[in-house]
Automatic annotation (TrEMBL):
Its EC number is 5.3.1.9. Coiled coil: none annotated. GO terms for molecular function: carbohydrate derivative binding; glucose-6-phosphate isomerase activity; monosaccharide binding. This is Glucose-6-phosphate isomerase. SUPFAM superfamilies: SIS domain. It comes from Leucobacter komagatae. Pathway: Carbohydrate degradation; glycolysis; D-glyceraldehyde 3-phosphate and glycerone phosphate from D-glucose: step 2/4. One of its GO terms (biological process) is glucose 6-phosphate metabolic process. The keyword Isomerase applies. InterPro entries: G6P_Isomerase (IPR001672), SIS_dom_sf (IPR046348).
Amino acid sequence: MTISLTGVSRDAAFDGALGSLRDASFASRLFSKDTSLWGAEAAVEAAVRLGWTDFEGNASEVLAATEDLRRELLDDGIDSFVLCGMGGSSLAPLMIAPALRVLDSTHPDTVRAALEGDLSRTAVIVSSKSGGTVETMSQMRAFEAAFVGAGVDPAGRIIVVTDPGSALEDAATRAGHRVFNADPSVGGRFSVFTAFGIVPSVLAGADMQQLVADAAGVRDELALDSGENPGLVLAAALAAHLPERFVAELTTDGTLPAEFGLWIEQLVAESTGKDGKGVFPIALPAGATPSGASSATLVRLGAAEALGNDGRSSDSDSDSGIGVFAPLGAQLLLWQVATAAMGFLVGVDPFNQPDVEAAKIATRESLGAPAQTSPAAPAPAEIRARLRELVLPEGYLAVQAYVDSGDPELAGLLVRARQELSAELGVPVALGYGPRYLHSTGQFHKGGPACGTFLQIIGVDAQEVAIPGEEAGFGALLEAQAHGDASVLRERGRDVVSVETQDPVGFLRGLLARG
Ligand SMILES: O=P(O)(O)OC[C@H]1O[C@](O)(CO)[C@@H](O)[C@@H]1O
């Protein structure tokens, strides 16, 4: 069998959850695109969201067209690829194509570094299902201007992936950009095997044929109404002990891309974290120690189960969490099925994201508001004391870093700070870059169970980068996004500790020194 699950504790709660999926014939109905699975209200959206269950035909057409385009671009000396996109439009290629530069930030330093690449040999893929995401549209305009500034015609260099009929398709066609239409019957976070996953990844040289084949190879197994169906077993294992055990701490063993956990975060958190409920996946950085909190299940991800000399699994001990072993392509379809099934078990519509919009509105309001002088950042010792006071014993902390996501020193410090805070507070701690997390775990933070506490670290240290046609630049947008999200979190009764700093490295060092 390609997919192997180990360590699942088959207790009464698990049996009950699995039983309800089997009784509902969930798997066969999912693959026959039964829109009524999540209730009458969700059926309208489900009618245009289940195309991912038969992905092969569309995927092979897009693969062929993209491979042709890659050859054409390489012949023209274009061998460097940047993707502008957020959430479901960026996290799949981020995991699949190591050679792709993914710009899913509005931090001026991150944007500037992408714009300052060698544009004479660069093509930019702009991916947005809606065609209206502010980060992506701003990045596209910045690249159009940068190409013109470098004496390169943007029309040959910008490749747009969007739904048919979006405003972006219209604008791109008028500007002479190449357009790939994505399958409109697939939502952003389920879109890895559509143009959103395929076009940027294959242009940047990734082999997606194998991924698609591995997913297709497990499709029949995942469509069975059987208690052995790994998609149903995984969903039941993660949803059985809600609301108490709501966190899944994810580790990868090095045989799968490190970014796989980030893809699972957006898929599961944005799909299930709403109506005060949900399953919260936390991608642990490499080498991190799991929290050991009673709210968390450890989920170990790998391409294949390790077998002992006797050929038997050495991995059946549920004390070390659940093992999920399969090649990446099979994992992707497995997690999509499990997420749809978790939506059913949790009792939510897995295809909407009702609380994301609130932060977007608050961001716009914050952009229009008069600038305020930020108060001096509290001392690190004060922050740790505040967090000890605020974090709920059965809750979680999310560190939201509005800093340059391309800075390795900052990345290392954040990983260490996350680990120290988890050990000190005794709760699971998530780490996400802003604005990336807004299109991923952000839905869960605002719409899921009200047990999160938030530490925002906002770097206000960078030199501004203009957004062509807008008064506010990227730095102003970044700050407005942080303030907007904080205001919505507070409105919903969550505690947010916000730190604005001109020296994020110094701040994090201070935080680590247990000041
Ligand atoms: O592809 P789009 O429409 O730009 O959206 C990007 C992301 O923003 C969200 O709509 C909301 O966070 C995600 O669901 C989506 O993947």
